[in-house]
Amino acid sequence: MMKVLDHLEEWLVTLLMGLATVIIFVAVVHRYAAGVSIPYVQDWLLSLNLSWAQELCIYMFVWVAKFGAAYGVRTGIHVGVDVLINQLNDAIRNKVIVFGLLAGALFTGVIGTMGTKFVYELSHTDQITPDLEWPVWIIYLAIPLGSYLMCFRFLQVTWGFIKTGELPHHDHGHVEGMEEDGQFEALAMPSDLHPEEPEKKGGKK
Question: How far apart are the C-alpha atoms of 79 and 172, rounded to whole Å?
Fold first, then answer.
């Protein structure tokens, strides 16, 4: 079940980012191509209405930010200042870390609850988005869903830390699919590529 949730979280973020990139690219190309005077083609491009593209991409990136934040908690991507915490002895340090994680869970849980109430109130109105004309509550649904998922991730990391004493850590220098050892051996230059230094005059042959 947890693997399904993990993959769903990753695929959602990846899909939204990919689609937003494609939509922005198409909208930009359409904007400039429509200004080129090409018979028939220009008329066809001008007949296409892509005014909704910018609005849709903004909403998609909002959803990416909310669910990406939850992904960041799970994988340890979020930046944290732990210089002072690491100076404490292990017993106190562990308590401070657990307190911080639980505080994050409480905060995101409160935001999720307030967001749920806000979305519920919006669902009983006729408010729609300017260009897409979608119900506004669908857009704001990212707040409770993303916040509750982030709250769950904080609790998940807290439980894992209590059991193992370890926090998720993301190596920013690691590239997926590339092994740690032996990857660059094939790129190493042979030692005999450098020409030998010529013998000095009068030296031994």
Answer: 11
Q: How far apart are CA 163 and CA 141, in angstroms?
A: 33
Please give the residue that has the higher pLDDT: either 137 or 183.
137
Coil, strand or helix at 41: helix
Residues 6+ positions from 31 with CB-CB distance below 8 Å: 50
Question: What is the reported pTM?
Answer: 0.77
Calculate mean pLDDT across residues 24-52: 89
Measure the CA–CA gap between 103 and 105, rounded to whole angstroms. Answer: 5
Cα(89)–Cα(92) distance, rounded to whole angstroms? 6
The tokens describing 39, both together, are 């018979």
Pairwise CA distance, residues 16 & 18, whole Å: 5
In angstroms, rounded to a whole number, what is the distance separating the alpha carbons of residues 70 and 151?
8
User: Alpha helices, DSSP H only, in the chain?
Assistant: 2-33, 41-47, 52-75, 90-122, 136-140, 142-164
Task: Give residue 170's pLDDT band: very low, low, confident or very high (50, 70, 90).
Answer: low
Q: What is the rounded distance in angstroms from the CA atom of residue 23 to the CA atom of residue 20?
A: 5
